[in-house]
Amino acid sequence: MRVGAKTGKQGRRGRPEPREPSDGDGGAVDELEITRSVRRADLKAVGEVRRALRELMRHRCRSDSADVAELLITELVTNALVHTGQGAEVCASLAATRLRVEVRDYANRRPRPRPRPHVPTADDGTHGRGLVLVQALADAWGVEALGPGRGKVVWFEMEGGLA
């Protein structure tokens, strides 16, 4: 996993330390952001992305909101790795009242949540629940096609209850 936090530095190992970015005039900007590149089939990186999001939200969000956000980012990143067979780019931005998470993959196929209500059968294991969770728990979500051969971005937003 390549690590590059726009709001903090990353050493060889360890966690990025988000900090308030400057607006260029010496003042603080009200938004924090992390970005991550996850290599194809690197499912261990999902936990690292989840921990980075937790760290981003630690001082500015209630723990129950962070728990939901961690669950949803886990679902989107895992879907990108498992269902596309390629890597993914993850960006999470946290403003005063809004968290937005975007997961870009390089497959053009649009994900489709299973119709509601979806009752998993014994033979489907854990498959098919990710986007249903995103639909149910996020305040907004969607898919943006980036054009032929460029992939897509699956995103979700959570508002309120963050501070």
SSE blueprint and pairings:
Elements: E1 2-4, E2 32-38, H1 44-57, H2 63-84, E3 88-94, E4 98-105, H3 130-137, E5 140-145, E6 152-159
Antiparallel strand pairs: 1-2, 2-3, 3-4, 4-6, 5-6
Helix pairs in contact: 1-2, 2-3
**Beta fraction:** 15-25%
Structural class: alpha+beta
Mean pLDDT: 78
Walk across the major sheet and give the strand order.
1-2-3-4-6-5
Level of helix content? 25-40%
The biggest sheet, with number of strands, parallel, antiparallel or mixed sense and barrel status, is: 6 strands, antiparallel
Taken in chain order, the helices and strands follow as EEHHEEHEE
Taking the alpha carbons of the first and last residues, their distance comes to: 30 Å
As residue ranges, the low-confidence spans are 1-28
Radius of gyration: 16 Å
Instruction: Let me know the number of strands.
Output: 6
Please report the number of helical segments: 3
The global form is globular
